[in-house]
Write a structure and sequence with these properties.
Elements (H helix, E strand, L loop, with lengths): L10 H10 L9 H8 L3 H23 L5 E3 L1 H12 L4 H10 L10 H12 L6 E10 L6 H11 L4 E3 L3 H14 L18 E10 L2 E3 L3 E10 L2 E21 L4 E8 L3 E8 L7 H6 L2 H10 L1 E10 L2 E7 L1 H4 L5 H5 L13 E11 L4 E3 L10 E4 L4 E7 L5 E7 L8
This protein binds 2-acetamido-2-deoxy-beta-D-glucopyranose (NAG).
The site of 2-acetamido-2-deoxy-beta-D-glucopyranose has 4 residues, from helix 9.
Pfam families: Serpin (PF00079)
GO cellular component, one term: extracellular space
Keywords: Signal
Length: 405
């Protein structure tokens, strides 16, 4: 996408901070990591699922302008890949293109994805997910498809009876898979004539490496075109982050380390604005990877909103924007049913929490931070698995007050 020159306006201050920082020496060797990132099957798959995720996020962001939005795209990749196993060769090709698999040339694609999903769900990472296909029984379903998906992904598609029992069944399953954290997955029953439905959900409670000593501090958050709202914030001085400023995108970026090789990237526009189109347009796996190599270690006075959010939506209309309009007309799911089976819903729900806890205290220094990073206006964030580069969560926060669990 757009090639962005990365300008460190804080260069001088940052190098000063870097000299003070104990982790400053780790910057060398970054190039090697970059080369590594897109060469193994796992990291190529990580990049593919991320690029699909950014495309999905862009599609949602442009349809829902100036609102809070959140996605756990990797779970959508997971469920649409399951669905691709039920398609004709052409249907598979169409789905693979949208999922950004077409350049992978990975003969073990399903195994690679399965392993990636297992690695990002490792217990320490704080992510739980659910991804499953639900099919109307009246389609006269082919049993081989059930076994195929179950063998590959360990989750068996489910036949629906139709009616209210289905909603309870789906909601109970999602709740169970997410340790009770994603409740009421469907707020209303599936339409009576629904055929093929995909379910994807995620819960994330990441743990910081470095804890915040102050939490629950009520502070102002600026809102585009409205008066500030009072929200709960976490605060910590001398907090180790990686940081940089992008003059083309007019934002400052901070990468905050979480436990088990996860990190959060925050993109904070210089101005109070809910229009982050330019920024949203730049996001690709490669852009974020290049960016992460440019950020420099710094100790900052960090102020972050205490996030507690829940978001659900039907992603079906967005698939039109991802080059799947033609496929949606005739999905060709010949391995699922001999009848014409169309996609009825692509429901998705995410729940995420941040808490001040971490397993380390910031290093005690006699001087306080020279830089402050205050996330007190609309921002965009993403959560990335560092080992694979896979995008786990992405969100736009325009008004934290509107967020609720
Ligand atoms: C958002 O910003 C872009 C350019 O950054 C501009 O083209 C677009 O018109 C803006 N959208 C709105 C709704 O203001």
């Amino acid at each position: 996408m757009k090639q962005t020159t990365f300008l460190l306006v804080f260069g001088v201050v940052l190098s000063f901070c870097q000299a003070q920082s104990e982790t400053g020496g780790e910057e060398t060797g970054g190039e090697e990591e970059h080369v590594e990132l897109f060469t193994t099957p796992a990291t190529k798959m990580g990049a593919a699922t991320s690029d699909f995720g950014y495309n999905l996020f862009r599609a949602l962001a442009s349809r829902e302008s100036a609102t809070n939005i959140f996605l756990a795209p990797i779970t959508v990749s997971a469920v649409l890949t399951q669905l691709s196993m039920g398609g004709s060769e052409q249907a598979e090709r169409q789905l693979y293109r949208a999922l950004r698999y077409h350049t992978l040339q990975d003969p073990q694609l399903h195994t690679t994805l399965k392993d990636l999903l297992a690695s990002v769900k490792a217990p320490g990472k704080g992510l739980s997910t659910a991804a499953r296909i639900y099919l109307a029984r009246r389609l006269r379903l082919k049993q081989d498809f059930f076994s195929l998906v179950e063998q590959q992904y360990g989750v068996r598609p489910k036949a629906l009876l139709g009616g209210n029992r289905d909603m309870k069944e789906i909601n109970d399953w999602v709740s169970q898979e997410t340790g009770g954290k994603v409740q009421r997955f469907l707020a209303k029953a599936l339409p009576r004539n629904s055929a093929v439905n995909t379910v994807s959900a995620a819960y994330f409670k990441g743990k910081w490496v470095t804890r915040f000593s102050q939490s629950g501090v009520m502070e102002n958050f600026q809102v585009d075109g409205g008066s500030p709202v009072r929200i709960s914030m976490m605060q910590q001085d001398n907090y180790p982050v990686k940081m940089g400023a992008d003059s083309d995108l007019s934002c400052t970026i901070a990468q905050i380390q979480m436990q088990d090789d996860i990190s959060m990237f925050i993109f904070l526009p210089d101005d109070v604005t809910s229009n982050m189109t330019l920024l949203e347009e730049s996001l690709t796996a490669e852009f974020v990877q290049d960016l992460s190599m440019t950020l420099l270690p710094a100790q900052v006075s960090l102020t972050l909103p205490t996030l507690k959010l829940s978001y659900s939506t039907d992603l079906l209309p967005l698939l039109n924007d991802l080059g799947l309009a033609e496929w949606l007309e005739t999905p060709d799911l010949e391995k699922i049913s001999g009848q014409a089976a169309t996609l009825s819903s692509v429901n998705h729900k995410v729940v995420m929490e941040t808490a001040p806890e971490g397993n380390q205290y910031p290093s005690a220094t006699s001087t306080t931070s020279h830089l402050s990073y205050r996330v007190d206006r609309p921002f965009l964030y993403l959560i990335r698995d560092e080992a694979s580069g896979a995008l786990l969560f992405i969100g736009r926060v325009v008004n934290p007050k509107d967020l609720s669990i």
